[in-house]
Amino acid sequence: MKSRAAAFACAAGALVFILSLLLGHGAGDDLVDVGRSLIIAILCGTMSWASAQRTIAATASAIDTATERLLAAAHGDLHSHVPAEIGLELPDLSVAMESLFSQVRTNLDHVQTLALFDQVTGLANRTSFCRQVERLLAERCGAGPAALFFIDLDGFKAVNDTLGHAAGDQLLARVAGRLREVVMAQVSAGLGDAVIGRLAGDEFTMFFPVLPSRDAASRIARAIQFALGERFELGSQHVDLGASIGIACYPDHGDSLSALLRSADIAMYHAKHEGRGRAEMFTAELALEAADRAELERDLLLGLERDEFLLEFQPQIEMSHGGVAQAVTAEALVRWVHPERALIMPGAFVPVAEESGMIVALGDWVMSRVCETAARWARSGVHQRIAINISTRELAQADFFLRLRHAMATHQTPPPMLELEITESLAMDMDERVLGQIRALRQEGVRIAIDDFGTGYSNLARLRELPVDRVKIDRSLVRDIATSAEARTICSAVVGLIQGLGMEVVIEGVETQAQMDMLRVIGCTLFQGYHLARPMGEAQYLDRYAAAPTVEPTERRSL
């Protein structure tokens, strides 16, 4: 800028000198004219230089001020105004700086909102909720208990699967609104405000820093259940939800947020296991159950590594009209030979495996052992299929059928020696990819059965289209068949329907001879249950059921 000012002053002086010479030409002595012109030029150049220097100084000062303001902004000062000096000397820069600071402030506010609030519900997210609760716990001075509520929605996954994620997000926003209404009602009742958060998915939390008693916590839980139990309307769709709630009180159930969350989570899972739609207060007994469950989960992983599992087999018996009883299928049932707890039945460890994800590894072990056993039976001339139960978690694995075929190929298992049992609810929800794989296996000779029929919700049109060979009627449909006319009517209708679709019917849970007699009158010929045989080891099974068919005596006794 100084160089430009010097150049400007020199140019101005030269121009004045030339003009002065031209205007004074012929008026006097040439040397005197040149001197006068030179003096005028020097004065003009000096004045131009002084003027330019003053402008440069003002601009430089404005630039220095702008630099200082930008440094202050870099250190976090985005709210102070841009100095007026900058606006006077450099108006475009002043406007640009104001616009920049405004945009940065807006972006930072947006980032803070994203960091602290859930975008779907507008509630505090996990980070914000935990910070607020930890601050409230640190500032507590009241004598009453505090209460943390862990709320898990019942049936939300079905809404996402059937109506889509957009409807699911809308439903979550409605749930958040009702939780706010519950808190407002409690504030009106004098119980104080609360912090509400969405931890993840369909899990919500609510923290009341001061309550008069534990009974107040139970009343709040009932209010939450009532609020979430009312029907939700999503456009033309009506959705019924519920909630499983776990309650933990400070300081009895934990003196820190992490301890309270753990206790409330344990109580919530207990509420779910007890049938959902419940509110449970944390207790020491629940803590022991949770610890035992965690230990069982650790032992389950070690058990898989140490090969502590075995298979037992329960026959499915075919009764012909001539009284000949013959085992046609052996259902493989897994048992756990725990080194400290003796023999553990699947009802005690399969749910743990399902929740922890270890059901996939356990299923692979069962699948490999069944394929090996079936191949060995086929080589020895025992042509009875072995049925294997497939869980929802296993079938959800993209490579399940690849692993099944690998096990069959490894042990050279003939496909007709295998039968896959899939639960009724799983069969109704299978997508086209899974159906295609099952159809391919069925064409190769693997039999497909629907297990526990009568315990879920069946679509009869869907049942007709499924690639299924057999349907196993659940024991709940035949339990009262010998004493209840209504039970006989229902069972007869179900059996007739399935047989009319061209599928075989297997009756599960046969426990008495009277049940068998009535079922045979209805037209059933395939049975499984304790009245016929309990699950047994492979050697005992082969001794009893690998031989020729036997004639059923008139007075049937339990095998």
TrEMBL record:
Q: What region holds the EAL domain?
A: 293-549
Annotated GGDEF domain ranges read 144-284
Q: Which Gene3D superfamilies match?
A: 3.30.70.270, EAL domain (3.20.20.450)
- Which PROSITE patterns does the record match to this protein? EAL (PS50883), GGDEF (PS50887)
Source organism superkingdom: Bacteria
Checking Pfam families in the record gives:
EAL (PF00563), GGDEF (PF00990)
- Cleaved signal peptide residues: none
Q: Which NCBIfam families match?
A: GGDEF (TIGR00254)
Q: What is this protein called?
A: Diguanylate cyclase (GGDEF)-like protein
Species of origin: Sphingobium scionense
What broad taxonomic lineage does this protein's source fall under? Bacteria, Pseudomonadati, Pseudomonadota, Alphaproteobacteria, Sphingomonadales
